[in-house]
Request: fold
Amino acid sequence: MYTSRPETHRMYYVAIVCPKEIDEKVYPFKEWMRKQFGCMVALKSPGHITLIPPFWMDEAREEELTATLHQLSGNESVSVELNGFSHFGDRVLFILVNENEQLTVLKKKTEAHFLQNFSGVIKKDERPFHPHITIANRDVSPGTFVKAWDHFLKEKFESSFIADTISVLKLNSGKWEVIDEKKI
Reply:
């Protein structure tokens, strides 16, 4: 059943946004999916590792949301290694983030912090944490997936970066934009 949202509500999420040089390496894979199969959803967001999945919130609370971000403390920057491609089912293709306990701890601390202040808005993510950088999602058809996965099985991708910033993103006119960020 479709539930309509009040006009005052917008979508947000919290993530580690990839540095520009990493995003520039990821973008061609998203663009390839657009050109080959018309997949557009992943192009609406910068390369990122989601810490808190998208949620609806009254825009009037946006300042409270960003203040909560700046109250997040006790974290250290995290070394992130990217290595190859993987997928969730036949709907999501992504760049694989190597397992990293520091990243898992950062996700848990960030989620607990935001849940404390936005428990009625943000829901605890019950799915296991599998950090990744999406290159195609939701608009990948099963037939498209098979062809795309065959392509990405032959591709290589290795890179790394230091995650030292957490960002809040907001959906504006169909595109996700960073509205605030905080150094870890």
